[in-house]
Amino acid sequence: MKKNRIGKKKRVTKETSIQMELNLDGQGCYHVKTTIPFLDHMLELFTKHGCFDLTVTATGDRHVDDHHLVEDTGIVLGEVIEEALGRKRGIARYGQDLKMVRKAKALTPMDESLSYVALDLSGRPFLDYKAGFKPQSKSPFSFELFEDFFQGLAFGAKINLHIQLLKGRNNHHMAESLFKGFARALAQAVRIDPKRKANIPSTKGKL
Ligand SMILES: [Mn+2]
Hints:
By secondary structure, this protein is an alpha+beta fold. It has four helices and nine strands, in the order βββαβαββββαβα. Strand 6 and strand 7 form a beta hairpin. The longest helix has 20 residues, at 171-190. The radius of gyration is 16 Å and the shape is globular. Residues 41, 172, 176 line the site of manganese (II) ion.
């Protein structure tokens, strides 16, 4: 039987302490405790829609604000993705969320919100991120932190990641659309393509 692709990481700094385990060949099971309920909700969506398994225990200096913890959680998620992929033998490499594809665009609707996510497990970190969340003075969560999250993730995983929120009214739905879109694009990119057998999908012979 094929071995599951698992990444495991413990990262401790003076600002945050994060322990994470990701199984790319999972079943959508999660146990996520970051002390930030909205971030937990997003990581759970990601796990369920990508059909991964994810365990996260994270704490940080939230008396400052949520920035360090959100950003570092993104970095560690990127690192466990990279570790789980190993040498990337046999993977599809490119991910596009094919739900409601039109004109080669990958779109994920979430009620009134709609986003586009495309990625390449290229080994070259890059993030293009356009998501205009609405100003929301009473929200317990700062939605602009998701740019830092995905920046950390793209660099931790060494992936080329394009995220664009096309429209939306409600920040909660807009964030859900981004995380579901990311999960589904990643699930496609990491899938093993049986035609490739164990070869690495690059003319360089290395990713
Ligand atoms: Mn929700």
